[in-house]
Amino acid sequence: MPAKAEAGKAAKKARPVKAKRAAAPSVAPLPVPSGPPLQLLSVASEVFPLVKTGGLADVVGALPAALAEEGVQALTFVPGYPAVMEALEDGETVADLDPILGGEARVLRGRAAGLDLAVLDAPSLFARPGGPYSMPGGGEWSDNGVRFGTLCRAAALVARGAIDGYRPDVVHCHDWQAGLTPAYLHFSPDPAPPSVATIHNIAFQGQMPPDILGELGLPPEAYSIEGVEYYGSVGYLKSAVRLADRVTTVSPTYAREIRSSEFGMGLEGLIAARGADVSGILNGIDLSVWNPETDPSLAARFSRTTLGRRSANKPALLSRLGLDPDSNRPLFGVVSRLTWQKGIDLLVEALGTLLGQDADLVVLGSGEPALESALSAAASRHPDRIGVQLGYDEALAHLIQAGADALLIPSRFEPCGLTQLCALRYGAIPVAARVGGLSDTIVDTNEMARRAGVGTGVLFSPVGREPFEQALVRTCELYRSPATWRRMQTNALRTDVGWAGPARTYADLFRQLATPAVTQA
Ligand code: ADP
Ligand code: GLC
Questions:
Q1: Model's pTM, two decimal places?
Q2: Using CB atoms within 10 A of its CB, is residue 238 exposed (0-12), middle (13-18) or buried (19+)?
Q3: 441 lines ligand 1 (CB under 6 A)
């Protein structure tokens, strides 16, 4: 990913959980038609469980199954990284793109992890060790602009019929890595399907030098303010925002926030200019991957009706991180990229307050070296109270959600956030900044919500050290009232965090675009 250049609202009413999740598009929903499924080409640079650096992969991996229930059949178009090539079952060459793209390049179609995949097998670009964007020792590949520009170019070829017998009705492009796809569709005389661009994080925009255009085969006229030009460079995300038929982001609040200079990272003017074409559709999580009743990573499985069993996960988690398993102090957990966006510097500053409240902390994550060191140093200073594991560990992430009393998410901005959804599903009370998707998915347990018995978490604003510390204190007070805490956990476990609702909203949007005549009727 390009350097992670990373750039609040009123208390919510009683029982708004479901209502909040319905991120209305500006169109009325259509009934699920009984005819053949709508064909969707989804273009992305990562997909869970094959390649993941963050929530983008989770969304790209989980949405197709939920869309299938809505009569939308997704074909997911991804780069042929080694992990994808290895996982691909019955991969068949369905398009030879050598003559157009130059070099060895073909599209393989097959299945992996339950997904219908189209894979861009271009070994010179993607058959590399390391992460999807970075070299094995860290640092980004210098040709990421060409790598993902080529992904977009190939996606547009597939969208216009490069695979015999396949014509998608709609193209769905995720983040800057898929952002040039609408430009390729736009700057070609051939008929093209409509496109939707989804912004998962506006902080990562993909800005490349203008001479990349020739290399990517986009015509010179594409380099204009009405096209891909962005402050003297080629803007991948900018061009998606400008040229996609619709733009979505991953929560209604973030859709509003990015119209302002505080959150828009330079794209606020363009976003605002697209008006009602920009909407927010909340993410969900895969309820089969995140299921406390069946999760093999837990020490004890539980459900809303057997919540008492959850408590066995806390000692398991404490001992896993080298802390006292018999502690009955409140335990805060963190599962996060350790970055400024995620407010981890605020966590470091607030450690004194956290310990002063007689609470313990477990952290799983990786990210900025200074934050990693600060957390490791704190763990060395307080080995019986703070446990830190640096790195990526799927199973431990699950155990933290099941074993911690509360999950800390002090993000400075959060397009949606998935960890609070996992926390709600597993009964870890989210303590979060009131921004973006966090404010759309968590009901703050303020005095009124507590009395009404509807709170699911603790929200604070503005994002800063003091409000965060106050939230820690407030959380510990709530924890000391077992009946209130139990009620919050029950409410959390009742919250609908699945994909069914959001998938319906996406399907309605896709259908509106694919059948404009119906929209006008
Ligand atoms: P972002 O995509 O901004 O990093 P999200 O909350 O949307 O944040 O998604 C993060 C995803 O990555 C979640 O599925 C979370 O459980 C997972 N995750 C983050 N850090 C780790 C880690 N160190 N180990 C395992 N899973 C992690
Ligand atoms: C980004 C955002 C996160 C969101 C995820 C999936 O990584 O930072 O808030 O949940 O994308 O949409």
A1: 0.93
A2: buried
A3: no
